[in-house]
Structures are given as structure tokens and as C-alpha cells.
Amino acid sequence: MNHLAIFDSFPGWAIVLIIVAIFGVIVLGVILLKKHVKIFKNEEKPKSEREIAAEELDRILQPVEEGLVEEKPEETPSEEEAPKE
């Protein structure tokens, strides 16, 4: 006796409908679990655009260390460039 013979009498669209319904019940169950069961609740609050931008800048920008920065001497106008009075 073939156990899959039951599917021979079903139209193709009904099988697809049953599969979609099963996945729909699973998704609905997951949504309800996340909403009502404390273990599955998401405690993280969404961040504002300002917080996201600040974190991204902190990640990208490296702090400048005093020893690594080469200081340029301040340029003083030479006698040729100085305005003549």
C-alpha cells in the first residue's frame, strides 16, 4: 500500500496551499512567542540616527597620538612676500 497515494487525489494547488498554511502557522507561532514569552523578547531598543552616526565615527576615526604627528613649522612671510610700505 502506497502511503503517498493520498496526494494523487489532491489537485496541485491544494498541496501548495497546505504547505503555505503550515509555514504560516509556524511564522505566526514564532511571532506570538517573541511577543509574549519573556525568553524570546528582544530587549534591545532601536538606536537613533545620531547614536548610529557617533558609533560609526568612533569606529572609523582613530585617535591621534602626539608622537606620530609631525608638526610643520609656522610659515612666516619672507622679506620678498612682505608688503612694502
Describe the structure.
The protein is mainly α and 85 residues long. The protein is 44% helix and 0% strand. The chain contains 2 helices and no strands. It has helices spanning 12-36, 49-60. The chain is elongated and about 95 Å long. The termini are far apart. The model has no long low-confidence stretch (mean pLDDT 77).
What key phrases describe this protein's structure?
85 residues, 44% helix, 0% strand, mainly alpha, 2 helices, single chain
Proportion of residues in helical segments: 40-55%
Give the uncertain stretches in residue-range form: none
Structural category is: mainly alpha
Using only CA atoms, what is the Rg?
35 Å
> How many strand elements?
0
Order of helices and strands: HH
**What portion of residues belong to β-strands?**
under 5%
Q: With helices defined by DSSP (H or I, 4 residues minimum), what is the helix count?
A: 2
What can be said about the biggest beta sheet?
Answer: none
How far apart the termini lie comes to 115 Å
Mean pLDDT: 77
3D shape: elongated
Short description:
Helices cover 44% and strands 0% of the residues.
Topology:
Elements: H1 12-36, H2 49-60
